[in-house]
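User: What would this chain look like folded?
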Amino acid sequence: MKFDLTDLRLLLHIVEAGSITAGAERAHLSLAAASERMRGMEVALGLPLLLRSHRGVRPSAAGGTVVHHARLVFQQLARLDAELGDHVGGLQGTVRLLCNTATLSEHLPDALARFMARHPGVDLDIEERTSADVAKGVRDGSADIGIAADSVDLSGLQTFSFCTDRLVAVATPAIARQLAGEGGTPVSFASLLAMDHIGLAGDSALSRYLAQQAASSGRVLRTRARVRSFEAICRMVEAGIGVGIVPQAAALRCADSANIVALTLSDPWALRQLALCVRNLDELPQPARQLVAMLRT
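Assistant: Here's the prediction, encoded as structure tokens.
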């Protein structure tokens, strides 16, 4: 049985995307070429690697074994590249990072900019996921580093404290007085569910998180408009279109230029401790270890 690196990387792309078509696109192969490679791998092995259904594809038992070892192969290659890079002018390689919406927009940009300025040979591959999916991605090896709320299951991972993240509601001053009174009493998320909301566009991790919180109380989050940034949410709120839920750091920043009020949410889940998580720090490629070290300071 002979699988080359292109075969293994294609299999990883297909499994992570849940689709042969999407996996082929990520691997920069035509669908026909990708399908032919997959058939060749399965013929060589004598077993199916993928289980196909109308919902897409998932790895078979044998496919899961190949995926596990393929990830180990690419982790070792990344580590080799990085360590060789030390001999020819600094760190080199790609670090794969998963994090939630608030982390990506509020807590990471400055730190990542400093890291990349210090290490011009290192690229970052960053994806936004819910905290639960971050933990899953790090656990199954599809990412080197994750940043997730420590309220999700982080068992089996090494974790390090990162920062505290608070979600707040933003509203016009008039609506804020109706909800919280002059003293700014904390408000519950449930009390906001009868109102129109402004949310983030696309399948953002924060949007999914808030929808899950609404569903847990048997309600539906009524999103009237979806926009691209927390700043745009605050502008729409200022215009009286609805209320929004954003990180406190974003609300305070936007309050300098928009006539809005940040309201503390009384729900325990609105105050989150964010944790860095890795499978095994000592086994990470050196660029990933260096990034963890910077984020922990």
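The two ends are 46 Å apart (CA to CA). If you want, I can go into more detail on any region.
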